[in-house]
Amino acid sequence: MSRAGYRAPLALASSAVLRLEKVNKYYRVGTHSLHVLRDIELEVADGEFVAIMGASGSGKSTLLNILGILDDYDSGDYWLGDTLIRNLTERRAANYRNRFIGFVFQSFNLLPFKTALENVALPLYYQGITRRKRNQIAMQYLERVGLRDWAEHTPAEMSGGQKQRVAIARALIGKPRLILADEPTGALDSETSQQIMDLMSEIHQTGITVLVVTHDSDVAARTQRIIRLKDGKVMSPHEMLPGTSHPGMQVAT
Amino acid sequence: MLVALLTAIAIGIGALVALGVLVLLAILVIALLKMAWVAIQQRRDLFSLDRWAEVLDTIRRNKTRTALTMISVAWGIFVLVFLLGLGRGLDNGLRHTFARDATNGVWVTASKTSIAHDGYDVGRKLTFDNRDYERAKSAKVPGPGGQGIDHMSARYFIKGGSFGGGEMLTKRNNKANAFQLNAVYPDSIYLAAQFVESGRFLVPADIDQRRKSAVIGRGVRDYLFEGENPIGQWIQIVGVPFQVVGVFSGQGDAEQERQIYIPVTTAQLAFNGGDKINMLEFTIGEANAEEAKVIADQVVAQLAERHHFDPADPQAVRVHNNVEAFERFSKIFWMISTFVILIGGFTLAAGVIGVSNIMMIAVKERTREIGVRKALGATPSSIVFMIIQEAVFLTGIAGLLGLSAGLALLEVAARTVQNEFVRNPSINLDVGIAATIALIIAGALAGYFPARAAARVNPVHTLRDQ
Known about the structure:
The complex is a heterodimer.
Chain A: H1 9-13, E1 16-29, E2 32-45, E3 49-54, H2 60-67, E4 75-80, E5 83-84, H3 90-100, E6 101-104, H4 116-125, H5 131-144, H6 160-173, E7 178-182, H7 190-205, E8 209-214, H8 217-221, E9 225-230, E10 233-234, H9 248-252
Parallel strand pairs in A: 3-8, 3-9, 6-7, 7-8
Antiparallel strand pairs in A: 1-2, 1-4, 4-5, 9-10
Helix pairs in contact in A: 4-5, 4-6, 5-6, 6-7
Chain B: H1 2-41, H2 43-46, H3 49-61, H4 63-99, E1 105-110, E2 128-129, H5 130-136, E3 151-155, E4 167-172, E5 175-184, E6 194-199, H6 204-208, E7 213-217, H7 218-225, E8 234-237, E9 240-250, E10 259-263, H8 264-270, E11 276-277, E12 279-283, H9 289-307, E13 317-321, H10 322-365, H11 367-375, H12 380-416, H13 429-455, H14 459-464
Parallel strand pairs in B: 5-10, 7-9
Antiparallel strand pairs in B: 1-12, 1-13, 2-11, 3-12, 4-5, 4-8, 6-9, 7-10, 8-9
């Protein structure tokens, strides 16, 4: 990962979905301050399929939360598209999350008392779209993940794979530019994991940027590029194991 | 020394409490303002069916919790409404008791001495005369601007009535009945809570010229005239003809309107009174109980001087000081009412705090849901509004139930309990509306703090919790 590439951001600005420059994050634990992210430099081009890997405690969750505007960072710049994400009001942050980013979680995080259809439609509720309209749209997305017949079922009646597909449909319904997936296969068996990753690939094919946080190298292997985190730092390519380096960066630059 | 210390401590505690209350009020005001701001931001949702569907959905999912919350609020408002109504009933009872006479009236009646004084033996029967009436007028609280007598009257007690008192046989054509006959000065109208319905009351000319004018109560008119216009007509009171000049109605009981007023001077002439007076009666304006007592004591002192009795004699004259009595009763009833409102208010507060508590638990239970909603694009204000809407809905519905139940019970009470203490227990419409508004505000406050906690839910932590 060459630093020189970052010194010419203008050329990249148009194609980068997100860009982090010297991002630092501390957690204050009592009197101590834990340096969780150290000078993170990261750029993801539009339409890329990227994995973020790292041992637990490497800071990958924190990074994902910052990318998803669910958490603040202490210094540096985070550009999402053309917008500098810093000191956003909660309202604007919510708006970006709603229209720019789709989340997929390890534990699905579907609302248990709502049907699959209502769960998928929820982001549109926060866009102020009428119930009729959003249910209609939600049905299209459910169909896309192959769960049309399960529209009226609650999450409790569905398998893990089905729940994750509902969650993916929900992430897609807001037409985001970026999907952030946090261990999307962590709670699934390997066969279902494969299906979910197939779905992720499909999504990527449609031109949406997909960023997957995982510690599963099989999952990571299906992406175009792997970013490795260690102790809060992005490891440069020469630090990585030769077999896992990806050509993604070159594609982006 | 000790007293000073205790006083200082008491003042200190008082100041602390006052400060605490002020801080609390400030917090509440800020909370309300913030909520108003949120409501403005979310005004689109206030009328959104979708939004209400969401609220109803949550409520339906937690039936037990909802029911418990609603019971506590409903009970609170029920108790408050009932106690307020009861307080009102007590107040009505008090006012009715005093309704017949002016609440600022003082009556000084001649009686028998019980202490030997100035060479006179005990048991002497006292009467006043017209000069006492003239002299008493000047009584006032010493000092500039001191309260004094503003309306002065005196009565001559006509004896020999049908029942040994002042009930005199009154005739018109072939109808006759015994009515209480009062010989008074014109200002007597101010001493009873009554007003002239038609014609006029007595005037000074009636006194000066000893006219045979009579002002009759509504009851008398209804009996003697049966719908005819009585003004200018003549009636016979124990054989003496009087001309009806006016009709009055009163705020007290029916007995008050079965009376006749004639000029005291005419009565003295017609019924062997000479210049005798049996009672002085006067109102004392805006004077309080203490000032009223000073004035009454002055009048008694003047009488004692002229009629040679001991001013300290408890029996020589009977003084009825309505100001004092009314103030004493008012104080007692005020205390009861305050007590009642406090109890009701605290019960309601307990209910509202209960709602707040339950909402707080609800927020805790729903952290994950709130986290998900935030991740999907819910703004903090929409979360705050969601929780507040729920709280207001719960307290509102429960409050209205409690309000209706309280009003129903008051209605039943008003029909069954009617005595000298409690009369027409009820609450005004404005009190009901105020209570409802207060309830909605209370509901919003109850929801506000849990809602704020909800808006602070950090999706990062909640969504990764397994």
